[in-house]
Amino acid sequence: MKTEFEREEFFNLCWEKSILWFCKNYLISYQEFKNTCTKYQIPLPPNGYWMKKKFNKEIFKPELPKTSDDAGKIHLVLRTKENSKKPKTAKKLKAIDSDSKSYDLEVPKRLSKNPDPIIQEMLSDNPRKHPIVNNIRDYTKRYNYGRIWVSASKKPYKRALCFLDTFIKVMKARGHYFLFCYERAYIVIEGIEIAIRMRERSKRVYEIEKSGYRSSKLVPIGLLSLITGEYSYEKEWQETPNKTLAEKLPLIIEYLEREAQRERKWKVENEKRLKKEAIEKKKQEERERLQKEEIEKLRFIKQKSDLWHEANKLRAFLEACNKNKNLTEEMKKLVVFGYQKVDWLDPLVSSKDELFEDLDPHKLLEEIK
């Protein structure tokens, strides 16, 4: 088998052999293979390609993109028994620990003689319960005692306890802690709560009943999975026949701390945004308040202006009546009455009128129009 390939040669081989074939025969992981193809701009088969090829269906194969002449050759290392040995899990965490602290990540096959208090609580026959408030158990608060929910049969459950004991001790050593609420457990990283639980994986088995109907049931397969997060942020770490959760422990810890930092950063930014929005809202409310006050003032001025114009029109009419020598006695009395009411209407004069003192001049004018 070759270990050195030209780009076009490697491209053609990628469309003849699956990624799994490369991982089995060469010392390269799935992600490293994808990164290599990205580096050398080598298109990979899309989803459904191998099924179409299996049934001899029509397949579209793109052309190899052109690159600079110095792209170089692709080198792979053949996988042998010697270089395929898996390194100890405990060594993997040192690379992600910025404080250069070394923790024992080797998950034992048997539970230690001095397990973490959380594991002791899980082993206890008399678990502590949430306090009762007004004859009702209080499930709204977080407590520093409780159990991590594990759904598994006997043997996988024991392995889950061994894994959780190591996981809890390492996370506590890294400065994190755990909280509990009812049947939920949370690990708190930088103030961010991340739910955790474990279960045994199962597979669906179909059976044909005597009646001829097809039925199915879930059968445990002895492999564990760790579930972190809740709802749309839930992530499940599954054991496989070739890789245990213990081997994935460094990746799990790295992921949890990275997600907590991302969530923490988002919360800080969100608090800043909410604070800024509150300030803007307060400014807008103050602006609207001042607008209303000034609109009221403007309305008041407009009303006084209307009264002044109406009073001047009436006064001009009364002066014209005085100049008329043919006025009747009744009309002369009305002119005198008119001068009194005009002075009451005029906002620049505002003479008192006992009979009209409880009336609004502006409303009165609106009514008599």
Explain what you see.
By secondary structure, this protein is an alpha+beta fold. It is built from nine helices and ten strands. It has helices at 7-14, 19-25, 30-39, 49-54, 117-123, 154-173, 245-323, 329-345, 361-368; strands spanning 4-5, 74-75, 132-133, 136-137, 150-151, 177-181, 184-189, 192-208, 214-228, 235-238. The strands form three sheets. Strands 5, 6, 7, 8, 9 and 10 form a six-stranded mixed sheet that branches. Strands 1-2 form a two-stranded antiparallel sheet. A hairpin with a 2-residue loop joins strand 3 (132-133) and strand 4 (136-137).
Q: Name the beta content range.
A: 15-25%
Radius of gyration: 42 Å
Q: Count of DSSP E strands?
A: 10
- Tell me, what's the shape? elongated
Question: Residue share in helices?
Answer: 40-55%
Structural class: alpha+beta
Distance between the termini: 107 Å
Low-confidence stretches: 87-103
Biggest sheet layout: 6 strands, mixed
Order of helices and strands: EHHHHEHEEEHEEEEEHHH
Counting DSSP H or I runs of 4 or more residues, the number of helices is 9
Average residue-wise pLDDT: 86
Helices and strands in order:
Elements: E1 4-5, H1 7-14, H2 19-25, H3 30-39, H4 49-54, E2 74-75, H5 117-123, E3 132-133, E4 136-137, E5 150-151, H6 154-173, E6 177-181, E7 184-189, E8 192-208, E9 214-228, E10 235-238, H7 245-323, H8 329-345, H9 361-368
Parallel strand pairs: 5-8
Antiparallel strand pairs: 1-2, 3-4, 6-7, 7-8, 8-9, 9-10
